[in-house]
Protein: Homoserine kinase
Amino acid sequence: MAVYTDVDDDALAQFLTEYNLGEVLSMKGIAEGVENSNFLLETTRGRFILTLFEKRVAEADLPFFIGLMDHLALAGLSCPTPIHGIDGRALRRLAGRPAVIVSFLTGMSPRRPTVKQCASVGTALAGLHEAGRGFALTRENALSLAGWRRLVADCVTRADSVRDGLGRTIADELAFLESHWPADLPRGVIHADLFTDNVFCIGDDVSGIIDFYFACNDFYAYDLAICLNAWCFEPDGAFNATKAMALSRGYTAARPLSVAEAAAVPVLARGAALRFLLTRLYDWLNQVPGALVRPKDPIEYLNKLRFHAQASGPETYGITSA
Ligand SMILES: Nc1ncnc2c1ncn2[C@@H]1O[C@H](COP(=O)(O)OP(=O)(O)OP(=O)(O)O)[C@@H](O)[C@H]1O
Ligand SMILES: N[C@@H](CCO)C(=O)O
Structure:
């Protein structure tokens, strides 16, 4: 369960005196998620999500994440809106951690997305990219090439304890990506973690997007590559070309890709697979005692990486340029 930090009733009551949210009716830890401690908070004014930021979130980045949610919500994206306190601040501290309260969104995360939901998430991703334009703050992607290099250095000697030969594979892959990563593509604010558990759907349509705590400035097409990884493989590991085509077409109908972006998708998909392989591997090798979080399977992303390494070109993903 993703509750690393407990909050006692007195501390919560004191914290809520800083807001206009009425009286607390209940607060429950939320099992989903692996990064932060999340609570469902019910007050006489409604439902909210209370998040306490944990290990991988740098406090210096929080104004970017919170400002971004304010910006996107104002631009019409269905995403959590930070609740500002009586003093106007949305970010404060609780139980020794930085903390924020955001609005509650309705909808269900798809367990196994349908083709139509893939199309809808493609369109929603393009909408997010458009809505992010004009946001004043910037944040470099800490989990791009330089970040991968650091993770490889941390994990490579122990990687073979998870799978024979894994250390060699990731070192080779990093070398390949360092020499093939695009130098320049259209860029702006990206979500960078748009997995199914960060998307709410009602029926076939995306109803909301959550969890902006990896958002950063990077190539738009890299965000598309992350989604292709997260949405278009079946539980048995098979790539679903129909879902990929639906997702890509949903995206490009709203934001066409340039020739260079389209051509880069296979290598971006490889990079996205390595990124999640490495963070999962790091978590697998460095489990937090007592956190009650089950680390995610790194090998799932090794298999996706192998798929992308064999891809014949952007058409594998149903991608055509403008
Ligand atoms: N604004 C919201 N409205 C409704 N439910 C929410 C909201 N924010 C978070 N949740 C619920 O809390 C869960 C965990 O949230 P979130 O994904 O932000 O956590 P996390 O620890 O950052 O997870 P991860 O990075 O692993 O996806 C979600 O799966 C969802 O069930
Ligand atoms: N979505 C990530 C975890 C949170 O970043 C993964 O599945 O590895």
